[in-house]
Design goal:
single chain, alpha/beta, eight-stranded mixed sheet, two-stranded antiparallel ribbon
């Protein structure tokens, strides 16, 4: 390792950061898993939180019970209010970076509301630099709530077409799971998982219990249960090599998924 470190330092001083030999030397260092025992749960904005107490209250009870045996990082989606904002901002010809900020404000609101519902159980919502306090929250109460929108803001990479931010809360939650080296990533939605088409608009849609990213792309499942750019992040990930999509409106699904059961759809990197 010493020789590798010395070689890497020498290359860093002499080469471009995109140099192939430098990248190969950097690749020799293994990533340190910061929170290997934690699971990231993404609570859908439109699919769960926008439905109000009928959907949210049972899920809160399940989270409270689950945190007795699991460490949980709970991210929130943006949902319907963000879609209204996107519509207005796009109509005003504003760029993707501005829409990203607007969407983040709604995901922030959902995190605050979920945090208030969990407050009496000692579970707090954190934001921005507050993520640095995550290990303390996990050590004390086994759970913490955060806003799922990645903090790109004006630095959001524009989509190939249109101005809707391509990296939204599905991507933001996955990035937290990957960068912290968490053991699992669970998306809590209002469908049983992935289908061959949108089950809300296509009656003959067929359920898919397990699939790879390559298969999803080959089948052209762009109108899928997850943001499509998130699949690229999954393919390139080092730690989180699969994600699970479950129906959070079915009591017990989250508990079963946390226990390692194959509930819903599992999407694998390869």
């Amino acid at each position: 390792m010493a020789n590798t470190t010395t070689e890497l330092e020498a290359l860093l001083m002499q080469r471009s950061l995109t140099d192939a030999q430098l990248i190969a030397a950097a690749e020799q260092a293994s990533d340190f898993r910061i929170l290997p025992d934690a699971t990231v749960i993404k609570i859908g904005g439109q699919s769960v939180i926008d439905r109000g107490r009928a959907a949210v209250y049972p899920l809160v009870e399940e989270i409270v019970a689950a945190r007795n045996s699991h460490k949980l990082l709970i991210g929130t989606g943006a949902g319907t209010r963000a879609r209204h904002l996107y519509s207005i901002a796009a109509g005003l010809n504003l760029p993707a970076g501005v829409l990203s900020q607007l969407g983040a404000s709604v995901a922030d609101q959902n995190a605050v509301m979920l945090g208030q519902l969990l407050a009496k159980h000692g579970v707090s919502a954190v934001d921005g630099a507050g993520l640095s306090a995550v290990p303390l929250y996990l050590a004390e109460v086994n759970a913490v709530v955060f806003s799922g929108m990645p903090p790109y803001g004006l630095w959001m990479r524009p989509a190939a077409e249109g101005v809707i931010p391509p990296y939204r809360t599905d991507a933001g939650c996955f990035l937290v799971a990957e960068q912290f080296g968490c053991k699992a990533m669970i998306y809590v939605k209002d469908e049983n998982g992935l289908y061959t088409a949108n089950p809300k608009t296509t009656k003959k849609a067929t359920f898919i219990p397990k699939i790879t990213v390559a298969e999803m792309k080959a089948k052209g499942l762009a109108d899928s249960v997850l943001e499509f750019p998130m699949l690229d992040l999954l393919e390139q990930a080092r730690h989180v090599r699969q994600v699970q999509v479950i129906n959070g409106l079915v009591p017990g699904n989250l508990t079963r998924a946390l226990a390692g059961e194959h509930v819903g759809t599992i999407i694998t990197a390869s």
